[in-house]
Structures are given as structure tokens and as C-alpha cells.
């Protein structure tokens, strides 16, 4: 899915397709944690692998919101992943990866402090 070109600072997602995530013109074929200032590989291949431990990479960036892209279909991980976020006032949104990529771009363009953890 190709997204319209956004004007803004930081890392924006150009497009998402199962198996491919394009950020700033470069294609990545692994799951990533991304925010305005950078991104790194996320060692999650399946939505069933999402846990408080695997979300630590996103949590450490101290965003206002964490968006979790669960792959081609929306999958709700165990409820206990919400507790650390709630304790520190971090919102959490769970959606399929295409929706997560679009939502991330919108929030970044609004200047929000957001991190996306996206399964490719």
C-alpha cells in the first residue's frame, strides 16, 4: 500500500506491504520499531510473539503512544502488556500493520510523540 507524500521531519513510512516496509525510500524486510528520530530491527515475526518483553524497545523511547502493527490481520496480544504502559501514562493502540503505518504517519505529522512497532 503506497501512501501519499507527507511533508515533515523525521522518519515517515512511505509504504507497507506484507513483507516490506519502506521508510524514507529504503525497503526493509524485517519488523521494526520506529519513531521520529530513528528505527531499529524488532525481533518479532509473529503477532503471538508480542509481549511486555518484546515491547521494551518501544517503551524505552518514552512516547505518548505506542502503535502495534500485528501483521496482515489485527491480533490482540495478552492484556498484561497494557499494564506497564498504563502505569507510565503511555497509550497503546493495536491494529493490523497497514493501519499502524498510516496511523503512525498521521500522528508524526501532527507532532505527536509516537512509536510504532510493526510486524512486516
UniProtKB/TrEMBL annotation:
InterPro entries in the record: MTH938-like_sf, NDUFAF3/AAMDC
Gene3D superfamilies recorded: MTH938-like (3.40.1230.10)
Protein name, per record: Xcc1710-like domain-containing protein
Annotated organism of origin: Solemya velum gill symbiont
Amino acid at each position: 500500500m503506497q501512501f501519499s507524500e507527507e511533508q515533515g521531519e523525521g522518519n515517515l513510512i512511505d509504504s507497507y506491504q506484507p513483507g516490506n516496509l519502506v521508510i524514507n525510500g529504503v525497503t526493509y524486510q524485517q519488523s521494526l520499531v520506529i519513531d521520529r528520530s530513528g528505527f531499529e530491527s524488532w525481533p518479532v515475526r509473529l503477532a503471538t510473539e508480542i509481549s511486555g518483553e518484546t515491547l521494551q524497545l518501544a517503551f524505552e523511547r518514552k512516547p505518548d503512544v505506542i502503535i502495534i502493527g500485528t501483521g496482515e490481520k489485527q491480533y490482540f496480544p495478552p492484556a498484561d502488556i497494557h499494564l506497564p504502559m498504563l502505569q507510565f501514562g503511555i497509550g497503546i493502540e493495536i491494529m493490523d500493520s497497514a493501519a499502524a503505518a498510516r496511523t503512525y504517519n498521521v500522528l508524526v505529522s501532527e507532532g505527536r510523540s509516537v512509536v510504532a512497532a510493526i510486524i512486516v
